């Protein structure tokens, strides 16, 4: 795919937007029934991470912001939490993708691990900063991060292979 200025840009963002809506519908219905708690996997984060790893930091940052704002509109008590978290995460994943060979799954595993940590760190930090709450930062990070990381790693591998082939 071409850069942000390419003629395929509109169709790329339209496809990602429609895919994001589908993913959020799945998260809000099926996954909410099966998981029901805060340790539910974030399919949108997995998609944004995989696309940022493939596309780079500029496109990843835009995708992260748009996908996060869409998630904010549907599920968040405040606008900007998921947008900021996914934008920063996708930008850092895109930067790291410059140094990692994209055909090795070990690179993807490391990226998904770090992306989940960064995203959860930002969300928990902002939540505690604005709303306070029970529990310590480290307790929340420990109990939410481990389960989500395992889910994200299992989901990222097939999704990445699919998106990488589509590239």
Report what the structure shows.
The chain is globular. The protein has six helices and no strands. Helix 2 (43-55) runs parallel beside helix 4. The longest helix is centred in the last third of the chain and has 30 residues, at 137-166. By secondary structure, it is mostly helical.
Strand content: under 5%
* Shape verdict: globular
The biggest beta sheet is recorded as: none
Q: Separation of termini?
A: 7 Å
Q: What's the total helix number? A: 6
Structural class: mainly alpha
Unreliable residue runs: none
Short description:
The protein has 167 residues and is mainly α.
List its traits.
167 residues, mainly alpha, 79% helix
Spell out the blueprint of helices and strands:
Blueprint: H1 9-34, H2 43-55, H3 57-75, H4 81-97, H5 105-131, H6 137-166
Helix pairs in contact: 1-3, 2-3, 2-4, 2-5, 2-6, 3-4, 4-5, 5-6
